[in-house]
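Issue 218. Parser rejects a valid record. Input:
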Amino acid sequence: MHSLNPKSKIQDPKSPRILHAPTNIAGIAGLAAKAQRRLGYDATSVEYISRQFNFGTDRSLHLERERGPMKAAKAMHFAMSALRQYDVFHLYFGNTLLPYPYPDLPLLRALGKKIIFHFCGCEVRRRDINLKEYDLSGCHECTSLVCLSKHHPPFGQADRLLVATPDLLEFVPGAVLMPGPVDLSEWQPEPFREKQLKEPVKILHAPTDRGIKGSNYIIAAVERLKQRYNIELLLLENVPHAEVKAFCSQADIVVDQIMIGAYGTVAIEQMAKGKPVICYIRPDLRHYYPANLPIISATPVTIYDDLEQLLLNPDLRRTLGVMGSEYVSEVHDANKVAARMIEIYEGIGAKRARAQ
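Output the parser choked on:
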């Protein structure tokens, strides 16, 4: 059990100084660092590029504002400073402190730093395998093709490998599944809202990429349902994270994705708020979740019927909402996720000690 005294670890000279960088995918880096500080550890999150979703980190280098030599110089300056300042380097989305071919990794290893690679999606997801092995995946209708231009460092350069969702375990041998964190002080369950007779049922969908999430199928299903029911689609795209919360309070049903096969940040946050969630869970990944996972699994073929089921059954919406908030509190609470990360860092030290 880790101390909750915010001074205990920071004042301990033997306590590791932790850096979460250089990418804040889905806000994981920022949330992890913040929660680790609450647990009493010296943790900082730094993003190199600030994006429109603005999940929030302790510091941004704003390299999106720079070009050419200045951009490289700012990254190098930060990297050299970080080498002196931190002990644990928790690195996200196939990035390290310096771009491909990752010249900082030999330095980190030579200095005895602890290195964690945390993979979150398309930086390791193999398009060729998904298209060949699965009838349905985020790759089948993806148009952004991020995977084709994305490098990632050799897995063997890290002390530990983490993945954000179970579908990625196939592509990162030896990785540990790390649940996505949510700050439960900011995402709290709301009372169930009984719909008035003429009030529309509101369906929220917030895709970062329409093709990967199956958005066109979701939109088409809602349009069909509008012919029979009083419903409204809240389609959120390129909306800053802070503004998403305001729309969430209006939602009666949330659809995360119906292609990838595992739930992500949208589902976690909306379950925390007590919203019923629809999201495709690939059958072969079911065993990574509890038997009573409070998510309705839908595909492009079933999304119309699954939405209709929730529209017609407010009691089911209420039940799923309660179960979802309880599930997220148990599995995705940022404090619990941060503590699991700390255990992994400490395990690296124990392994090194045994090897000596």
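Fixed in the parser; the record now loads. The first strand starts at residue 17 and ends at 21.
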